[in-house]
């Protein structure tokens, strides 16, 4: 659907402006500390929330903010498919591939149960479970429109998982001496537990090239699990009690267009149909669109609602992460990864 630019342009421009500020602040972190402790994505959310706290956007802005939060985010999910190659995925070996799928399934189930036990709403529990178990912000973004999650649920889930993701990057290397992990084992652990691909690199590059390569590959397989999870949620969302508007017949109702696009782009990448020089711009575009969308989500957040669930969300996300780390270590030991 072609947007009405007269209606959406002001809001889009606002979100792009916040993105530019967030990236400048991220670069300032790099200049000062050598790496960004808060990614531009998280900064964009915080900037949006800060502005929304003192100013509620009027009709002039809401169209573009809504377009940025939904449509641009869906386009970013499609572009993520360009990071997936069947050849690199299969190089991990069948046992580890099966193990990653099992880890994702166990992590989703355990995280969901933990969230519900903490009294979190159904939709937020699903968002936290998918974000924790698959790929953090991208998983939350992909699942949110399927289950009809509102801006507060999305931004709360993303904010807490993203901030905790920074803590994981800083703290995960401590497991190397504690558990006597090899570079290979640590790379697999990072790929199984860290939320975002850039965070995997931040957690593994200082250790070794081997850790970085394995961590990235394992992480990409976790990202690949997003497709089946979203398809299953699309098929069973009525039974889960999260169905949105009345169903429409056809494949596009069962499988959202952006997931089909994700799979098409992944197939094209695997078949060598995407020229190598285009891969960098595709991934850069996906990252930029995601940050713009996060700024838009922040602008739609009512802090009073977030504050009512903040403590419970934090505990649920932390406990879910600890469970994920535990089962990931168990998989490494079970498969005798050296």
What are its keywords?
single chain; 338 residues; mainly alpha; 80% helix; 0% strand; globular
Would you kindly provide a written description of the structure presented here, covering whatever features stand out?
There is one protein chain. With 338 residues, the chain is mostly helical. Helices cover 80% and strands 0% of the residues. The protein contains 17 helices and no strands. It has helices at 5-33, 40-54, 59-80, 86-90, 94-117, 122-135, 137-147, 151-171, 175-179, 183-193, 197-204, 209-224, 226-240, 251-254, 257-270, 276-299, 303-334. The chain is globular. The relative contact order is 0.18. Residues 245-250 have low confidence and may be disordered.
Overall SS class: mainly alpha
**Largest pleated sheet:** none
The ordered H/E elements are HHHHHHHHHHHHHHHHH
Strand content is: under 5%
Share of residues in helices: over 70%
Radius of gyration: 19 Å
Intertermini distance: 51 Å
Q: Tell me the number of strands.
A: 0
Shape category:
globular
Number of helices: 17
Task: Outline the low-pLDDT stretches.
Answer: 245-250
Q: What's the rounded overall pLDDT mean? A: 82
Task: Give the topology.
Elements: H1 5-33, H2 40-54, H3 59-80, H4 86-90, H5 94-117, H6 122-135, H7 137-147, H8 151-171, H9 175-179, H10 183-193, H11 197-204, H12 209-224, H13 226-240, H14 251-254, H15 257-270, H16 276-299, H17 303-334
Helix pairs in contact: 1-2, 1-3, 1-16, 2-8, 2-16, 3-7, 3-15, 3-16, 5-6, 5-17, 6-7, 6-8, 6-17, 7-8, 7-13, 8-11, 8-17, 10-11, 10-12, 10-17, 11-12
């Amino acid at each position: 659907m072609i947007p009405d630019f007269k209606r959406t342009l002001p809001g889009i421009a606002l979100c792009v402006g916040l993105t530019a500020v967030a990236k400048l602040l991220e670069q300032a972190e790099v200049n000062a500390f050598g790496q960004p402790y808060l990614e531009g994505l998280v900064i964009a959310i915080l900037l949006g929330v800060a502005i929304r706290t003192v100013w509620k956007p009027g009709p002039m802005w809401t169209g573009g903010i809504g377009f940025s939060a939904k449509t641009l985010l869906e386009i970013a999910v499609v572009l993520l498919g360009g990071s997936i190659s069947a050849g690199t995925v299969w190089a991990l070996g069948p046992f580890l591939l099966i193990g990653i799928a099992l880890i994702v399934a166990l992590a989703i189930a355990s995280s969901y149960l933990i969230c519900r036990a903490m009294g979190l709403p159904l939709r937020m529990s699903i968002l936290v479970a998918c974000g924790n178990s698959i790929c953090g912000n991208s998983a939350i973004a992909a699942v949110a429109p399927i289950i009809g999650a509102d801006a507060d649920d999305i931004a709360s889930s993303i904010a807490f998982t993203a901030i905790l993701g920074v803590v994981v990057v800083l703290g995960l290397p401590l497991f190397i001496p504690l558990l006597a992990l090899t570079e290979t084992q640590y790379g697999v652990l990072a790929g199984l537990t860290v939320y975002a691909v850039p965070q995997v690199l931040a957690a593994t590059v200082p250790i070794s090239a081997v850790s970085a390569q394995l961590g990235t590959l394992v992480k990409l397989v976790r990202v690949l699990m997003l497709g089946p999870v979203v398809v299953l949620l699309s098929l069973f969302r009525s039974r889960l009690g999260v169905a949105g508007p009345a169903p429409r017949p056809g494949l596009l109702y069962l499988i959202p267009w952006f997931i089909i696009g994700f799979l098409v782009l992944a197939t094209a990448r695997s078949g060598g149909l995407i020229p190598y020089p285009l891969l960098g711009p595709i991934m850069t575009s996906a990252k930029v669109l995601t940050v713009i969308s996060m700024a838009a989500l922040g602008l739609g957040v009512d802090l009073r609602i977030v504050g009512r669930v903040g403590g419970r969300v934090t505990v649920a996300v932390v406990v879910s992460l600890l469970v994920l780390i535990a089962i990931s270590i168990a998989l490494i030991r079970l498969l005798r990864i050296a």
